[in-house]
Design goal:
The protein is of the alpha+beta class and 108 residues long. Helix content is 14%, strand content 32%. It is built from 1 helix and 5 strands; from the N terminus they run αβββββ. The longest helix has 15 residues, at 12-26. It is elongated and about 75 Å long. It starts with 11 loop residues before the first helix and ends in a 17-residue tail after the last strand.
Length: 108
């Protein structure tokens, strides 16, 4: 008995375009939790996050922290380790670059 597989309704190119559009429509927003040291003296990225429609996922840069929260802002208290650190939520701007005249920031 020969089983016939129906032909796909789309070409590979059409289906790839449909999938790419689906990914673009449903992609989470990306953000970083940064820690400002002192008053604009230094800063570091402490975690990266994904904001979905109904929750946020946060992953520490060292790989030892994971959080699932109702919204991204709920992560900030967990990154205030002392009075000299101010956590901030920074949304990814793919067009942002470090100005040439800015001092290097500390790397995590």
């Amino acid at each position: 008995m020969v089983v016939r597989t129906p032909m796909p309704p789309w070409t590979e190119e059409q289906f790839s375009a449909i999938l790419a559009a689906m990914v673009a429509d449903h992609a989470p927003r990306v953000f970083a939790v940064v820690q400002e040291c002192g008053e604009r003296l230094d800063g570091r990225i402490a975690a990266w996050g994904f904001a979905f429609e109904d929750h946020a996922e946060i992953i520490g840069v060292r790989g030892d922290l994971r959080m699932r929260l109702s919204n991204p802002e709920d992560a900030l208290p967990g990154f205030r380790w002392n009075d000299n650190l101010t956590p901030r939520l920074i949304w990814l701007d793919p067009d942002a670059t470090l100005p040439a005249h800015a001092p290097e920031t500390s790397k995590s």
